# Entry
Amino acid sequence: MLEVVGLSSWSWVLFRLNDRYLLSVCCGSVGIFTIEVELGSLEVVRYESEGVRFIDELSAKVRENPTQYGSDEARTLLRSPEAEEAVAIWHSTQSSKPGAA
# Structure
């Protein structure tokens, strides 16, 4: 099942599908678009050791040069109704946590 494991508003959403991590990065300034990337094994290791700091760094790299990134398979998975549902579930669990806005 596709699930959201992290989200930074107007920046990125990190999904997990079994042992795979998929990142959707918000790009552009006038025209907003997303680039979907599947993390490679070394990127997964860095995420597991550095956490959100690494995802912020990777997202910045994607934004700086979006044509160098992107995966057709990741794009298909992350533009599906299942991804929309995963984001909705993530938001509902975040809003029920103490201190959530």
User: Anything to note?
Assistant: The first helix runs from residue 41 to 50. Strands lie at 2-8, 12-17, 20-27, 33-38.
